[in-house]
Structures are given as C-alpha cells and as structure tokens.
Amino acid sequence: MGDDQEFEEFIKFLSLTKRLMDRTVEQYVYYYKKLDLSMLSSQDYCNQFVQDHKNNSIVRGMLLNLLEFKGLSKTINMPPKKTGSMKKRIIRDISHEEIDVVRNYLYRISFKKGLIFDLAYQGALRRFEIPTIKLNSFKWIEWLDHPDDPCHLIVQGKGDKERTVLINPETAERIFNHYNKKYEFKDMDGIRTFANSQSLIFGKKLSEWYVWDVIHSGSKKAIGRGIRPHELRHCRATELERMGVAIRDIKNYLGHSNLATTEIYLHTSEKESIENIGNILKNG
Length: 284
Hints:
Layout: H1 3-17, H2 22-32, H3 43-52, H4 57-69, H5 96-109, H6 111-122, H7 140-145, E1 151-156, E2 162-167, H8 169-183, H9 188-195, H10 208-223, H11 229-242, H12 247-254, H13 259-265, H14 270-283
Antiparallel strand pairs: 1-2
Helix pairs in contact: 2-4, 5-6, 5-10, 6-11, 12-13
C-alpha cells in the first residue's frame, strides 16, 4: 500500500470506524505527518515521539489509533500518562503597543497573516473558528452604510453555534479594499455579489495549527515572545471589561456557555479592583 493510499485509509478508519469528529481527525493528521512511519514498530521511537510532543492527549490518541490501524497495538506499549497536577499555563498581559507591533509585522509579511491576527484579536476568536470564515460571514452591505462603525462578523463556534463579533472599521476597510482591488467592483451589483459570496475569506480552508503558528511565530519574531491565540481571547475579554462592558455581554461575545468560564478570562489586578471599588464608593 502506497503512503498516500495508506494515509487515506487511515483517515477513513478514524472517521468511519472510530467515528471521530472532523476537528479531531484534523488534529491527528497534524501529528501523523510528523511521524517517521518506517520507525513505527520501534518501541523506543514511539516513546520518544510521544515525549517530544509533551505526552499530550492528542498525540497519544493519534498514535494509539494508528497502532491499532496497522496491527501493532499488541506489540507497542504507550508510555505512561502524566500524573499529578498539570502546570497551569500563565496568561500574560499584552499591551496595545505589543498588539500593534505584531499586527504591523504580520501585515508586512502578507495580508493573510495580518488578517488572521486581526480577526483572532478583535473578534476574540478561537483558532478553529478562523478557517471557517466566508466572505458573506461579514455584514458588508450594512457596514457600507455606516463605514465608521464596526463591521458585524458571524462566526461558527463550538457545537456549530453562531455568534456575532465586531471587527474594527479600519480592518473592515482593509478587507473590502483588498477584494475591491482584486475584483474591481463596477457597481452595487458587483458589491452584492461579493457580499453574498460563500467563498472562504482565505481562499481555502486553513488548518487551525497554521493559525496557531502564524500568531505564535509572528509574535515571537516581532516582540520576542510567542503569543498563543487563546491569550488574545483573554486580552480582548479584559479590555472589554475595562471599557465597562457587562460580564454577561463578554460571555456572549466569547461564546461561553456559562459565566464561570468568562470570569477566568478576566485579568483585573488587585490594584485595579481597589481603584474600581474606590471610584464607586466616591460616586455613591
């Protein structure tokens, strides 16, 4: 069986036999392509591969399914799972200056990479939500009537639940001008055709891992430290809170199912809390 054919058969095995969701299969494929398949029958190689990728559940799941698919599950043992409490990832504050530096850096590389960053940050989007955005996900006609206002963007969140986020008018104008230059809209009919197009905004469906890499690698080169896409969600949530947005509105904006999750995203410091309470007492 050739490599390409075996790959296709493995995908069918995951989807049809194991009934895994498309997103899980996509995550498995990312790590599958990093494997040296000729070494798969080596216990030492499998152990090292899992450890090199931090022994995470996706790597373990992919390898377990692949070993079963290739009939090696009885001869290769998985290394032990991590035990004890997991080290909590630190969510660091990101300043407006850092946001601007990373954004400008990525736009200098390409329109696509800059836009990925802007959408992730302004819409507080999850990395898997960005590849599904289409041209008609934006409310272009309404925005053109009020170009100084944010543009509404409809995204597909967890469980295919739709929610609306807001994209800055400068970014909306950048996107519109990019496509106007590409298609040369002659009249309103041309704009409506563009506004109703179901084409993906990036031309093809990107991998969520590509989105992660654009943001993380780009920020590392621009400001000396890698920003994770989820940190941008935390950053945006905190900014909205500081602007006075109610936590229930922030919850809906981020697509959370409960307030407890949203509260984790908010990073008001003790000093800010005291200042906020002091201002309320003064005005009360």
